[in-house]
Input
Amino acid sequence: NAGVTQTPKFQVLKTGQSMTLQCAQDMNHEYMSWYRQDPGMGLRLIHYSVGAGITDQGEVPNGYNVSRSTTEDFPLRLLSAAPSQTSVYFCASRTGTGGNQPQHFGDGTRLSIL
Amino acid sequence: AQTVTQSQPEMSVQEAETVTLSCTYDTSESDYYLFWYKQPPSRQMILVIRQEAYKQQNATENRFSVNFQKAAKSFSLKISDSQLGDAAMYFCAYRSHNFNKFYFGSGTKLNVKP
Output
């Protein structure tokens, strides 16, 4: 019962490098989201998807791209990493059935940009 | 966008005592959902309790209960018989009935003293 799997768990990048954070869920959830967590600011929504082929921006989308080609996968791409993107990133998924259904979170990726 | 406010950055409680964490939110909607998540040092996000806005009865899950005051837009979490394992960051979250976006508060760090 894997749930939401994020890879990698830790990553260090240099300014200007690109990389993709992977997120996969095995619960057949329609909704998937990416958040960043910074000290004192809680979780902020970067991008989200309500189904394969459909994505939309959250509160802090600049500098990030997403795509959703399958129900299971929702990768987050940093095109040109900046020190301001140093954060812990969480992927989450949720079923579309039942409004009170909570999000299920991955274990997070700690990303440092030098 | 909705805002969620947790005014207590850090709190402490003696083991076996009761503690209440505060959360207020700002919305013009009448139908929505509220959640409390726990984040221990392991970084996992764990659902503690949930509440539907249309339900007048306060939700309860074992030692955890909420005081939901819809008119006051308040959603506090009460932890009874506090245990050492309750030490964590606690996040309050809001989700609109019509949208998939979750809005999180900035968190309250709970310390439990033996």
